[in-house]
Amino acid sequence: MKISNSPKETEGRVRLTGISLAAVAFAAGLAAACSGEAPERPVVVADVTDLMISVLEPAAETYWDGVGEILVEEGVHLIRPLTDDDWTALRNAAFILAESGNLLMMDGRVRDRGDWMAHSRDMVDAGRLALEAVDRRDADAVFDAGAEVYYACRDCHARYAAETLRPSDPRSTAPADSLGAVAEDTSTGDTTDDQGSR
Ligand code: HEC
């Protein structure tokens, strides 16, 4: 049994090993570069503003519009999801809202690793709540989850986009036909976040 090599032999082998390792690493790098095997990374296509306007806002509107009340001359008209398609639309919107929270956490959009991540996480949670309400086909729960979604938007805006506090609080009791009344929403009077909104 040969336990040790002469210093010369060992040196030679170490050197050889070093060379082969470098060669292997180089070959692997070349192969990866040629065959596109480098690890794929997510690519940011929509910046935060795009994501707000094209993804979050439409999904939130769909969700908020799903359940509610409209004041009409004869009284109050209840809006409820009726058909399977109505519920599917709400379900799709809830998924978009939840996953948007994850999209906000991506490199290229994330603003910091603290509050931004927490607010994004709140968006995910609100979206999941919205989804659960839909899956129970519980219109009242959809209404309540809509409020949680709204708070997730509002709280992040209060911290990072004070000028874009969302004006149209879906929980507002103001008549929908009066923009001024909606902007002057007072239904969240327990906070000061809305001050200075347009
Ligand atoms: C994690 C933070 C965060 C969350 C959650 C969030 N937003 Fe935003 N939003 C922002 C920021 C930041 C801006 C300002 C744009 C910028 O700074 O790039 C913004 C801007 C907006 C704008 C204005 C875009 C423009 O410039 O015209 C709208 C509309 C909007 N958000 C809607 C929503 C809605 C609806 C929700 C919830 C469903 C929401 N946002 C949730 C961070 C957030």
Kindly describe this structure.
By secondary structure, the chain is mainly α. The protein has two domains: 1-40; 48-183. The chain is 59% helix and 5% strand. The protein is built from six helices and two strands; from the N terminus they run ααββαααα. It has a two-stranded antiparallel sheet with strand order 1-2. A hairpin with a 2-residue loop joins β1 (68-72) and β2. The model is unreliable at 4-16 and 169-198 (pLDDT under 50). The structure holds heme C (HEC). Residues 48-49, 52-53, 56-57, 60, 97, 104, 116, 119-120, 123, 149, 152-153, 156-157, 160-161, 164, 166 line the site of heme C (HEC). The site of heme C (HEC) has 22 residues, from α2, α3, α4 and α5.
Kindly summarize this structure in a few lines.
The chain is mainly α and 198 residues long. The protein contains six helices and two strands, in the order H-H-E-E-H-H-H-H. The chain has two domains: 1-40; 48-183.
